[in-house]
Design a protein that fits this description.
CATH topology: 2,3-Dihydroxybiphenyl 1,2-Dioxygenase, domain 1
Shape: globular
CATH superfamily: 2,3-Dihydroxybiphenyl 1,2-Dioxygenase, domain 1
Helix content: 10-25%
Number of helices: 2
Strand content: over 45%
Number of domains: 1
Strand order of the largest sheet: 1-4-3-2
Largest sheet: 4 strands, mixed
Structural class: alpha/beta
Number of strands: 8
CATH architecture: Roll
Length: 136
């Protein structure tokens, strides 16, 4: 397994609940784990994250819900539809329903379909499906 250059590690309040959300609802794969320290390295369609039970190792202040304030993690996916269906099937609240967005990048307009959801700890996940780009 090749590690991405940037791999966020998320401190979570309830490791089992978070692991279930990421693997059983969204579809992340456990690449490896250390259950003695309640840690898992997860991947999904080329994206990688780590989750670990809250502890004193990385704590810089009090962790209060929603965690990760001021950041959203964009996760590029082949299609947001299976994720949306899985969230609905599990009665999981959606932060922003699927919608098309476009962003200027130099002289190109990038188009994508996005879906935003907060994980059990409030981290904001922005799943993004590439549509097509236009030269403007």
């Amino acid at each position: 397994m090749k590690f991405n250059k940037l791999v966020p590690e998320l401190s979570v309040k309830n490791f089992e609940k978070s692991l279930k959300f990421y693997t059983e609802v969204i579809g992340f794969k456990v690449e490896y784990n250390r259950l003695d320290s309640l840690f898992a390295f997860l991947s999904f369609q080329g994206s990688q994250i780590m989750i670990e039970q809250e502890n004193e190792n990385w704590k810089v202040g009090k962790l209060e819900y929603p965690l990760g304030r001021g950041i959203n993690l964009q996760i590029e996916v082949e299609s947001i539809e299976p994720i949306f269906k899985a969230l609905k099937k599990n009665n999981y609240p959606i932060f922003v329903e699927p919608k098309e967005s476009s962003y200027l990048v130099g002289k190109k307009k990038i188009r994508c379909k996005e879906l935003l959801v907060q994980d059990p700890d409030g981290y904001l996940l922005r799943f993004s499906e590439d549509l097509k780009e236009e030269i403007i």
